[in-house]
Structures are given as C-alpha cells and as structure tokens.
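Regression report. Comparing outputs from two consecutive submissions.

Submission 1:
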Amino acid sequence: MIKVQITDDHRMVVESLSKLINETAIARVERVYYNLASCREGLKEGLPGILLLDIGLPDGDGVNFCAEVMKQYPSLKIIMLTSYKEFSIAKRALHNGALGYILKNAESEEMFMGIETVNRGELFLCDEIDILLKEKANDGVVWLSERESQVLKYVADGYTTKEIAGFIFRETDTVKSFRKNLLIKLNARNVAELIKKAYEMKLIW
C-alpha cells in the first residue's frame, strides 16, 4: 500500500481525491495539508511514498517548494497536481525534481497509474502534458528534469549505473530508465554520442 500525502488548498479537491485513492487497493492517503507551511512541518514527522503537490498555494509556489524539499529529502517522490498546463511551468517542475505532472482534469485511472509509476521511481506525465512536451521537443527544445540532469552529469563523468544509483538514492533499474530517457530525448545512439550532444547543447559543461 503506497502512502500518499496531499497538499492542496481546495478542500473539495482534497476530499474527493482522498476518497478516490482510499477506495483503491494501491494507495492510502495518510495526511493532507492546505498550505506549504503545514506540509513543511508534516514532512519533518515522516515522508510519504508519494506527495501530491498543488502549484498555486496561498503561502507560496508549489514548484519552488518542490525544489526546496527535494534538497532536504532527495528520496521524496513528488507528483505535481495542478490545473496549470503551460510548458514553462511543467518544465520548471520537472527540473526542480518532480517525477510526475498530472492535471486536475485527468481521468482517475491516469492518476492511479501516475502514483504507481512514480512510486517505482519513474517519470509520469498525464497525456495532455506528455503531448505538450513532445511537441516542444519537436521544435528543438530539450527539457531535462533535475534528476535527469544529475544522471547525465554522472554519466559524462564516467560513473557506472550502480554508482549513480547510490549517489541519487534510487534503484539501478530506475537509473537505467533515466539513461534510456536521456538517449531518447537527445536522439543519441549510444553513451558517447549522448555525452557529445550534451556538451554541444550546453546541458553539461
């Protein structure tokens, strides 16, 4: 059973989402917060398997908060749950360490799939955001999450998959998934080409 915590200032959203999640056999909502301050204090008492985090909160920006807590709790898995579907916001959230980005109008099945996928340490984007980012990729824009940027730097420095897994507190299979995603995003056939393109695109230096 995946332990979930929710941070969202809309009580009806929190109540309906909690009910949906608790009716499944995959996850259980153990705590809810209505602002960043209470979430910050709650995380000190114990980390969830998944933190569902809104962006527009009364006491701050959830995307900035994501970067803050990821520095403090690098093993925390965060899914941004929001109505914002702008490319720049999604890109910034992923860069700040979020492993998931789901719109509030997404189907419940997509939400559950996202929780299971991110719980495995893999990236999950709802269909609408996935299409948006792929369209931008076709325009020559390459976006990397903060975790992908870390893995890319370690790969360029010559570290093995096992060593990288230890550095970022993830399973080796998760690191393999990151490496595969990097090859796809940079359209590279192998690690050597990946590193060459990364330097050319100023993704590492």
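Submission 2:
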Amino acid sequence: MDVSRSRRVQSCRVFSVTRSLLVGIVVVLFQPISAIACELNHAEITEDKGIFRFQFTTIIDAPAEYVRQVLTDFTHIYRLSSSIIESEVLPSRQSDETKIRTKVLACVSVFCREVERVDIVRILASGELQADIVPELSEFRSGRAIWTITALENRSKLAYEATLEPDFFIPPVIGISVIINSMKNEFVTTLDRIERIAYINAKRDGEDDLAIAHLNASETTPPCE
C-alpha cells in the first residue's frame, strides 16, 4: 500500500471512530429529560428551632461508580446547582479529607442572599460520603450531610440525610413552608443533574469501548470506501 492510500485509510478510521462517538454523545445529550429523570422514592424536609433536616432517597439511572464519580468531582461541584455561583477546593491538613468552599445564591420568593459555606468532605470506611460544615468559615452554625450510594446492577440507589442550621437573618414574612418547598425543588434539580451527568459519562465510556472494538475489528479490512 502506498503512503497516500495508507493516509486515506487512516483518515477513514479516525473519521469512523469520531463519528461513532459523536453520534453517541448527541443521542444522550438530546434525549428528553423525562427519559432519564431520577425516581424520587422519598423526600422530606422538616424544621425545628431553626435546624433543617433533610431525607431523600432516589433511584438513579446510572451505575454506582459513575454517581460516586460525580459526587467526588469537587472541582466541578458547581455543575450540580445553578445556585452555586462560586466554588473552589481549599488546602487541607489531612490527606483523607477535602475542604470545599462554595458561595450560594439562596433565593426564596423575593428574598435573595449570597451565602458562604466551607465543608470538610470525607469518604468513610463504609463508602459513604460525609460532609461537615466548618462554622467559623461559614454562615451556618452547624451542618452535616451523608450520601449513601448502593449499586443496583446498571442503576443505583442514592440516599441523602443531612442537618443544616443557618446563621443568617431570614425575613419573618417568608414562612417556613415556603422555604422548605424552595429547598425541596432545588434539591430535586440537583438529583436530576447528578443523574444526567452520571448517565452521560456512563454512555460516553460505553461508546468509547464500542468505537475501540470497532476499530480493532476493522484492522484487517478497509473501514470505508
């Protein structure tokens, strides 16, 4: 085979693999949201003496390892909520923990406020993710969240339990029920984003494997005319 034909064949192979990957990505990105919307099995937010308690359980249409990957991608944590207007990973003294600073635009009805928080995130021996608010660096008196991820073949069960105690003024004209509904809507959006990112990553890796297998199978025959 001369050099020019070799280059044409190589170009065809690259085009074939690239086209396969692009088709897969386009199919995933432009699916209707309802096609991969998470199944919210349980959602509860309560308030007592200024402390909010959260309990959410959902089935996510993505493997557990990809859900964990999204939750531990601290550099891109802002992708999980449009309310996160700033985020950064801060230096930490411990190798088994990650310190994350976020600035959140908290809006309820006509009330909006930028709120600072710093969390220490650890992966427990059980595999759970635990996040503790650092009160002296945050506008919260206390807070702890635990994420539990359970594998269900190609899907996963995601459970979230948390307590949160704000340390900033909330106008009394805004009722607790309004705040709770706003928090619940925001959190459902976050769960949808976790699922969408995890689902796309899983599909992308699947398309990569398919494209590589196709390329290997095509090495003995011309991949295109």
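Expected: both submissions complete independently.
Actual: both completed, but the second showed a warning that disappeared on reload.
Relevant detail on submission 2: Helices lie at 3-29, 64-71, 176-217.
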